[in-house]
Amino acid sequence: MLLMLLPALFVSAQDDPSSAAGDPAFVPDVRLAKALVDGDSVLFMKMNNVYVYPVMEIKSEKQRKAFNRLVTNVKKVLPIAKETNKIIIETYEYMQTLPDQKSRDEHMKKVEKEIYQKYKPRMKKLTYSQGKLLIKLVNRECNSSSYDIVKAFMGPIRAGFWQAFAWTFGASLKKKYKPETTDRLTERVVLMVEAGQL
């Protein structure tokens, strides 16, 4: 009986704008099926991972505010990092189909112009800490540092320019995402946001 109600609950959660399903970082996955086990039909359901962590010990108001700020920043920046990964994959695959370097360069200029038009207003609204978090989350999503991505698509000179620009603001495009050590709390928040738990 419960299995029959779950799809209805899932659909109603999608319609609710306050739910996590409205979050672009949350991709729901619920599948109902049946399998034949020892000659008997068994219903089963496959759904998103549910992460269970020990309760956080927040000892002060300052820690609570810092955690809430991290959650807000991840929710704002994670969709941009995921979009970045998608754009990189699409651009790379399309550029592999182009016949010569001249057409690749023309395509890169066109893509760069479109990215500036679409993302410049969003980037201007990011805070300093959100920008630094975005650099790390791009590394998480793409398995490559922002510096290496810029270098691969635009060359080492422009990558050096953007690294110097970031350095003047105390950031680094070469920053790596370390989910096992320094970014452990960030990874916890990211996984929970992706699963729709936050």
Strand order of the largest sheet: 1-2
Number of strands: 2
The low-pLDDT segments are 1-23
Estimated helix fraction: 55-70%
Q: Please summarize the sheet with the most strands.
A: 2 strands, antiparallel
Radius of gyration from CA coordinates: 21 Å
What gross morphology would you assign?
flat
Q: Report the sheet-strand fraction.
A: 5-15%
Number of helices: 7
Key terms:
7 helices; 62% helix; mainly alpha; disordered N terminus
Describe this entry's structure for a reader:
- 62% of the residues lie in helices and 8% in strands.
- The longest helix is centred in the middle third of the chain and has 37 residues, at 61-97.
- It has helices at residues 2-15, 61-97, 101-124, 128-142, 146-154, 156-168, 184-194; strands at residues 30-37, 40-47.
- A two-stranded antiparallel ribbon has the order 1-2.
- It has seven helices and two strands; from the N terminus they run αββαααααα.
- It is mainly alpha-helical.
- Mean pLDDT is 77; it is low at 1-23.
In short:
The chain is mostly helical and 198 residues long. Helices cover 62% and strands 8% of the residues. It is flat, with a radius of gyration of 21 Å.
Tell me the layout of helices and strands.
Blueprint lengths: L1 H14 L14 E8 L2 E8 L13 H37 L3 H24 L3 H15 L3 H9 L1 H13 L15 H11 L4
